[in-house]
Records
---
Amino acid sequence: MAGNVDALYIFLLILCGSMALAIFTMITVFAIRYRRRKGHHAEQIEGSNALEFTWTFIPLGLFLCIFLWGAVIYFKERTPPQGSTEVYTVAKQWMWKFQHIEGHREINELHVPAGRDVRMIMTSQDVIHSFYVPAFRIKQDVLPGRYTVAWFHATKPGTYHLFCAEYCGTMHSGMIGDVVVMEPAQYQTWLSGGAAAGSLANTGQGIFQSLGCSTCHRFDTQGRGPNLVGVFGKTVLLEDGRTVTADENYIRESILNPSAKVVSGFKPIMPVFQGLVSEEQLNALVAYIKSLNPPPTGAAGTPNLKPPTGQPPETNR
Amino acid sequence: MASATIPTAERENYLNKGYGIKSWLLTTDHKRIALLYLITITFFFFIGGFFALLIRLELLTPAGDLVQADTYNKLFTMHGQVMVFFFLIPAVPAVLGNFLIPMMIGAKDLAFPRINLLSWYLLVIGGVLMMYTILTGGVDTGWTFYTPLSTQFSNTHVVTAALAIFVAGFSSILTGLNFIVTIHQMRAPGMTWSRLPLFVWANYATAIIQVLGTPVLAISLMLVALERIFSLAIFDPQRGGDPLLFQHLFWFYSHPAVYIMILPGMGVVSEIVTCFTRKRIFGYKFMALALIGIAVLGFLVWAHHMFVAGMSLYAALVFSLLSYFVAVPSAIKVFNWTSTMYKGSISYATPMLYAFGFIGLFTMGGLTGLFVAALGIDVHVTDTYFVVAHFHYIMVGGMVIAYLGGIHFWWPKISGRMYPEGWGKLAALIIFIGFNLTFFPQFVLGYLGMPRRYWQYSPEFQVLNVLSTAGATILAVGYLLPMVYLLWSMRYGKIADENPWNAAGLEWMTPSPPPTFNFDETPMVTWEAYNYDELKEVPVER
């Protein structure tokens, strides 16, 4: 990704550099050649429609090319590939907290393997922050009350700056950290080194049971709430006739404020969990519900037997 | 000029009409009000500049050592608020526009002289509130007031700061309204729309933005204040609010506000370039159209400030595309100024040096705008020093330079005296060098990844920061010089006649300084704008 961004950047440097140079040269030449002196008079020129159209449409054409190029890069930046390794992130004044699927937790330091796509699923506990790794050329604001997503594919092992890029109060400039990119083998060693208390999904399962979610969300059709197996990524038909894709944000909202979008065929009887679960617990719950329908390649967590599901427009059972 | 004998010093003019404090504070003369504005915004310019200098000094070293983190945050917040709302927005319209528009169109005053005075009082009230905010501990939300930081987390004087800007906003709205009505209704006989100087067109375009955009800012700031005071939940995600809503509201005004801060500068430069090349402006109609085009398109690009804010992918594509459209009229203007110089008879008085500076720096600011409008690049450089450099090239390299150029150009008309040319040129040169040394390194810093609004930073960024701080001190000297020699010239400067530059435009056909009602008799216009070919032969017709 860094290469793509730099290529466009260098192209723009050359293009804009030559445009600027052309204009500055013309101004300098005119300023000298037509300086005020004896016997020299200004020659009045009304203008020229041909020239006006030329310097309207040629720049417009160039601009549209730049737009397209920039848009293509952005599209890639905003579309995480299937099967990325997922890292849940909670930003708060003034630190970064990371939760790996494997259960490892880190603060202001993020270990990732080289050569893998990594998808950051991020939320904030307080104000707006922004996840910025200059070396990867990525930045994504991290908002309270919802998930935003960024992804990267680090190629070279090393330690890179992580900055908060959205002004967030007193120690904004102290909300920094390191992204440590490791060779996959080293990364495995690192993973096995830490004493993780089970995977994030396992933690989520524990919370799922202790909060009593499992009484209604049963793994059959008899529960008072929808069966959550295989829900993630599906299109869900709601009670009011709308449909919604069951992504991380939908699951999050359905936990915190369940009556916002009630699944068709069910009653709005679930209690509100806003304020009762922390952001980290919420992440674990989301990870657990997703693990009931793991991503196609089984990127992280337990390997599973289910085939990739994609996102067919089918309604909820 | 057929206005015959030129009795200068004794002749009654707007300056010697009365000397009492009441004759100033209760004046309805647009020229006196312009001077009141000049004093007010110069005061705020130096306040904002002082904050900037402290910011740059703090950034001399990577560690946060000169001031506390909270102090630093307040400094950049108040630097932005003071400079944007109490200097840049009123700068050209309220000072030069106020002074010149009635004269340029051959009118006695603005359409609503009392409302004009009210506008100034509103700015002063806003300014007093701002000073109260500053003196009682300041505000630290960033000039952007982003929620929920501003509504739930900041412990500083957010409400008074918002109120200050709210009130100053009405000053801006009323000035815009006054200009629109004046330009529509008060043009002298024969002063058709196609004969208006581009300075008038530029202020007209600006006025449209002021009237249509500023109320939205007022509403957004009011909502922030209400949410703080009454604990509403408009922007609070915990209670179903949306923090991004604020960003949309804020930028809906504050992006067009960027054009409030540059269009009038473009107008100034068009006047200067034509005068010192002795030529018509190249492509008058396209220049006027481009001004209106920028004003209209400027309303459709606000969300390009939010490409990484969590907006939908497709919204970002639309706003990026529209941002490229608004770049086109800006490019047209640069090409036309350049072409105006072609086959001219160019001289290099101080105002023209500023105009050269403006075209160069605005071009730089505009071209780097192409970088930040490109989605893929913006993701990397937004909220870094690249953006800081980009908008300072427009607002300082563009607007402040144009404003200074305009002040020098019309100084003989305003004060009746010439400024010292040598000092003028020296100051222009110092400002140009200081400006580039301050802000050019910031482009590099930004691409290397230094985020903006950082109190302490990674040591590898230090060299470029030292360069930038060095530039800022040079720039400070450059700004102090005109302050000194312009004041000096009011008493000791060479007496100016009514048209020292031999410039076109009705404002040069009345004595310097002008009488209270500008013209002894209403002029009749029979010539096109910038009639530099026939200048000497054109009398003021009766």
---
Amino acid sequence: MQNTTELNDKPKRFIYHFNPEETEITMQTRDLEILYGKTLAMHNADIQFQKNTITALIGPSGSGKSTFLRALNRMNDGVATVKGQILYQGVNINQPKIDVYEVRRRIGMVFQRPNPFAKSIYDNVTFALQRRGIHDKKVLDEVVEKTLKQAAVWDQVKDSLNKSALSLSGGQAQRVCIARALAVQPDVLLLDEPASALDPVSTQQLEATLRELKKDYTIIIVTHNMQQAARLSDYTVFFNMGEAIEYNKTRKVFTRPKVQMTDDYVSGNFG
Amino acid sequence: MNRSQKQSKIAITGLKLIAGFVVLILAFLIGYIFITGLPHVSWHFLTSPAKAFNAGGGIGVQLFNSFYLLVLAMLISLPIALLAAIYLNEYAKDNWFTSMIKTSIEILSSLPSVVVGLFGFLLFVVQFNYGFSILSGALTLTIFNLPLLTRNIEDSLSNVSDDQRQGGLGLGLSKYETIIHIVVPASLPGIISGVILCSGRVFGEAAALIYTAGQSAPALNFGDWNPFNIDSPLSPLRPAETLAVHIWKINSEGIMPDLTQVSSGAAAVLVLAILIFNLSARFIGRKVFERMTSVK
Amino acid sequence: MQNEKLAKQLMKKSKTARYERFGHLLSLSALLLIMAIVLGIIVFVASKGLSTFSRDNVSVKEFFTGTIWNPGTKTPSGQQAVGALPMIVGSFLVTLLAAALATPFAIGTAVYMTEISPKRGAKILQPVTELLVGIPSVVYGFIGLSVVVPFVRSTFGGSGFGILSGTFVLFVMILPTIVSMTVDSLKGVPKYYRQASLALGATRWQTIWKVVLRAATPGILTAVVFGMARAFGEALAVQMVIGNAALMPHNLTSPASTLTSVLTAGMGNTVMGSLQNDALWSLALVLLVMSLFFNLLVHMIGRKGAFKK
């Protein structure tokens, strides 16, 4: 374990590094710089994401955590300029030759507000597969059942799969959106404040679902809710002012942060 | 009450009178059209061909022509307008090229329809040698219809939340797939309303058609639906006076004895059709929206 | 190494990427088509319209100042009888008069709809204006012919056909256009303008007159210009009531003509390529240029008024 300490008693930044020999790294950023026009929105953010863990990205609004997340599956294309390397299983996906659609299939994303399409629940889940040429009803039926079960919403919707997904409640809609993302068989799931539009009960259910999904997927989640990060995640990155300030095991970030700024933030003395 | 309050009161009463006057104008227009026109509308009137010199003619052929031209013009303009709107709303960046495109669409939409008609005459009737025909008329109406339809569709597309686009892209779909299969269906209620409203406008247009679809309505053989026969209703190369052109034509140079009855009847049918278009635009758009968001 | 296999998979251009390219180009081409049409219209009409001057040797001055319109013949002074002034004057007269008449009514109605009774405005006047916009121009022409012309005849004398009837018909036609655009610009005036004014003790009317209308002026001007553009380009409704005499109007009730009325009446009776025909295209060119001018005006007002937002 190495760290980027500086020589006073508390470092300005602390970024945990895994030993690649011992841990399986699914994603990793290297020398990342994100610019909106000429404004630098993110730098100093070399983070490794371990396979089958949940990593929470926290920080005040405007800290760049969402921008960082969206760079990971190149959703910033056309919006911001992303420089540096984004390694997915060792392959740099931040280069022009890479087919961005295949990247996004493998690195799925769930958004802040539930955004079901104006289609039936069934079509919401199978739509991307159908667009990829899979029309076998049996295969699609299986995918629908499996992913809706994974997203823990099967029991609520199994009798109304032909119902418009726009009629679902927020919590159910968000789960259908997760199922939809799972249907294309990604390995990584990026979630951008997925619970911010949900009530406490739905939020709790969603967290339980994510804990379950961790077994099969690498999960990276942006949240503004520190309790959620503490409850849910294995690792936590704290962002501020377009920089990763601290990255460590979640327990350590919340109980014994190495950086003063992190300490202030997690104890609520920030700002 | 002081002076300025009194003044305010008087001014506001004045405004109320003005607004009432505008409502009266419409009431008068609609009332006049229907009261003078509807008594002449009968099944016979709606289905029989026009007569040039005798009383008792109908508007059957013109009515058919109007609908046929409308359908053709919509079939041609809808895909073009949809794609153009997609480009403007989804792809266009904020640069000189885009503003040039937008300006040219504005120019097209504000061109007098008679100028569009003359261009259609020059290009389709003369240059392409389609003559005064359904085809020339439909193509000209397409040009007339494109800017407004494009703008309507663009508005509907821009009303779709960005979340929907993100959702599609996040699944690894291309932008275009996302637009065609997610954004467009989501904006369907708006697009349908827009199409119907534009239909009303196209249906009532005459100036663009006088020199393109022509001013004569040869009798049609409604038993022959082979588009390649010249007296078939579907034939694209026959001249086709529409209802709106008919009203203009007989009022300018008609000589049949029941001229007033025929024109007021035709005007009533035309306005009725436009009214139906207007009302159904609201109604159908809302119905589609309800169906999309509710239990099937 | 699995990485290389993965890299290869990720670098293969997917069907999706090809589809995206196709869709992008397809939608761009639709736009280019529209642009080509606009360009085509301008070039065609301009080249036809200019040939009166280039091929038929009519002087531009004669065209814009001459008062005798009978292409193919000569004036008493030996010039080609291609004087378009009567039509130009006719077009401008009906347009300006209709706009002058419609603007106060339109503003009044719009103010009523947004400031005085928004509820009734949305429920009654909104659909009323939409319906008025939707009524086809031939229907306006027909009503003009059967109601306005007799009315003018019995009130002011003469045949009833003329500038005045044209003005009345156009007034009703452009009224809804101006109303709905004025409503939009009034709605764009922020609420706190009104609240601030009322809080300062201004009456409702003072607030409307001194604050709301003032702030919405650029939008209202745009609305009026749009109304004028519509009036200037309107063909059939005017043609049905104006009398179609290509003479200088000496009063508002004498038969006159506009650019559009001569065009619609005349185009069918001339042979392509003849002077008679070319002269009509020149009128069309004037129409086109005016339409472009109205567009430019709207842009300029928009740019000037932009700071108000």
